[in-house]
Design a protein that fits this description.
alpha/beta; 8-stranded mixed beta sheet; 5-stranded parallel beta sheet; 22 strands; binds 3-acetylpyridine adenine dinucleotide
Length: 539
């Protein structure tokens, strides 16, 4: 036995799980139910994954709490006291901690321990997993529950280290309160993290300057406390609702649109957009008509309508124009906000369009653009993540014959179903590239993958088999299918973290599966029902 931090780690387990977010926690619970031994390694000091790390001001989920919660335990969903429509980060973290306590998960989680590498040994059919503390654990299965947006990315701007004031990164926010009162603050980045934090920082700071390279589409969240009657209604119908979630396209049931945006009158179209805008729900907006994702012309109607809204809200015409995105709606992740556009009417908030005056460097005093130097007491980096692959290729995973996952994926991730990768037996990814993941309510996709992986392991054990590995043919066909579907959509038109283009040098390829969680689940279930078709099962 070796000791890491205060926890004793067994030298051999059935499964090593990397990450104690929503995926890792449910996996641990599920594998325990199958009488398997598992250890979870977690880099943070607590559970919650993305909700442990992203503590920036204003952080909230953009899927409603009653839908963004585990469905695997009826007692949990009946009893958990959600308070708000869109809970804050502390509220979601409290839920994660509640789950960890309720299911007694902590005894098998090793905190403050990053997994650095893992190598497959074909003779023993096991993984040898190494951590930053130089411990080694042998496991039959290695399960990467590392999340899609967990490897932070700083902007590639010279001089970051020279700034003499305080620097913050939204995805690595300090655990103690940060007080911007009386401070001059600069923020770089206007994705979801920027859009959520800007209004809150603006209320505190003396002066806030937003450096925007690409504007986001954002919808007002219309957050509010949940009413007792809506909680009671959901609890009474939860089973049917969960089923509808699983069969839906994005993990949130919506009224499926039947009309093209181009076949209705201007009045009908505007009324539909207005209704979605008022509803405070991204999925409502994206499913007003059938063809936003595939027709530029249809998408333009929505884009132009939102531009109108922005111009209506933001008083300064130049600022309003800079806030209007030109790419198709939905092709970069849209945001849900509280007072985002309104914030630009405050006298202490200024927008700098980096399209007009590019960022040159960070200086000792602040930020220099091609036009001038701005002086700050603090700089906030809301600059995103090495999404979908960063956390996987950040671990030195060596499969059969020493094959490196990072090198194998250098021209883009290659998976079968987003769950396995050829050359890497008994390696499972939860919500990996090539699965719906980030295009869905993550918890729905997480539960589906956890249950599928647990089922695959149970199948191997029942059949006396020791390993499962995606075949190259099945993987090639899946990658082609993922690309083909993406090719029918407008997604590739925008540069986004979906495409990997936010990370210099990363291959431009659309990574999630656009077919929807309902269709995808059927495909995964069919694969299992046909004896794990497309996987080699090895004795
Ligand atoms: O990151 P982002 P995020 N110079 O990549 C800019 C989820 N999430 O943390 O677009 C100047 O979206 C970059 O500009 P550009 C959600 O899925 C959910 O905000 O590359 N600017 C962009 O504006 C979300 O989509 C929630 O031109 C630079 C910004 O930084 C995902 O996480 C909340 C730059 C990064 O935006 C990521 O969101 C928060 C540079 N060198 C996050 N480099 C909710 O549930 C980057 N940028 C609500």
């Amino acid at each position: 036995m070796t000791t890491i931090e205060t926890r004793t780690v067994p030298p051999r387990v059935d499964a090593v799980i990397v990450g104690a977010g929503f995926s890792g926690m449910y996996l641990l619970h599920k594998l325990r139910e199958q009488n398997l031994t598992a250890v979870v390694f977690e880099a943070g000091a607590g559970v919650g994954g993305t909700w442990y790390w992203n503590r920036y001001p204003g952080a909230r989920v953009d899927v409603e709490s009653l839908a963004y919660s585990y469905s695997f335990s009826e007692d949990l969903e009946q009893e958990y006291p959600w308070r708000e429509r869109y809970p804050t980060q502390p509220e979601i973290l409290k839920y994660a901690n509640h789950v960890a306590d309720r299911f007694d998960l902590r005894r098998d989680i090793v905190f403050r321990t990053r997994v650095t590498g893992a190598g497959w040994d074909d003779d023993s059919r096991t993984w040898l997993v190494r951590t930053e503390h130089e411990d080694a654990v042998t496991a039959r299965f290695l399960i990467m529950a590392t999340g899609c947006l967990s490897t932070p990315k700083l902007p590639e701007i010279p001089g970051i280290e020279t700034f003499k004031g305080a620097s913050y990164q939204t995805s690595r926010w300090p655990h103690e309160d940060v007080d911007f009162t009386g401070k001059r603050v600069g923020i770089i980045g206007t994705g979801s993290s920027g859009v959520q934090s800007i209004p809150v920082i603006a209320e505190q700071a003396a002066d806030l300057t937003v450096f925007q390279r690409t504007p986001s589409f954002s919808l007002p969240a219309r957050n509010r406390p949940l009413r007792p009657d809506e909680i009671a209604d959901m609890r009474a119908t939860y089973r049917a609702y969960r089923k509808a979630q699983r069969e839906s396209s994005g993990g949130v049931p919506v009224v499926v649109p039947t009309k093209s945006a181009l076949e209705v009158s201007d009045e009908e179209r505007d009324a539909a957009f207005e209704q979605a805008w008022e509803s405070g729900s991204l999925v409502n907006l994206l499913s007003t008509f059938t063809d936003f994702a595939i027709s530029q012309e249809a998408n333009d109607t929505c884009r132009n309508w939102i531009h109108g809204k922005i111009r209506e809200i933001v008083r300064d015409p130049r600022t309003a124009a800079d806030l209007c995105p030109e790419y198709p709606v939905g092709t970069k992740r849209p945001c849900l906000d509280t007072n985002y556009y309104e914030t630009y009417n405050r006298p202490n908030v200024h927008l700098v369009s980096l399209r007009r005056t590019p960022l040159v460097e960070v200086t000792e005093k602040g930020i220099r653009t091609s036009e001038r130097e701005y002086e700050f007491d603090a700089i906030v980096y809301a600059t995103g993540f090495d999404a979908m692959t960063g956390a996987l290729t950040g671990v030195d995973i060596r499969g059969r014959d020493g094959l490196s996952l990072k090198e194998t994926w250098s021209a883009g991730p290659r998976t079968y179903l987003g769950i396995g990768s050829s050359g890497f037996p008994n390696l499972f990814m939860i919500t990996g590239p090539g699965s719906p993941s980030v295009l869905s309510n993550m918890i729905v996709s997480i539960e589906q993958h956890v249950e599928w992986v647990a089922g695959a392991i149970a199948h191997l054990d029942r059949e006396g088999l020791r390993a499962i590995e995606a075949t190259p043919e099945a993987q090639d066909a899946w990658v082609a299918h993922v690309n083909e579907l993406a090719g029918y959509t407008l997604y590739p038109k925008a540069n986004s973290w979906y495409m990997g283009t936010n990370v210099p040098g990363k291959t431009r390829v659309f990574m999630p599966y656009v077919g929807g969680v309902g269709e995808y689940r059927k495909k995964c279930d069919d694969v299992a029902a046909r004896g794990y078709e497309g996987f080699s099962l090895i004795a």
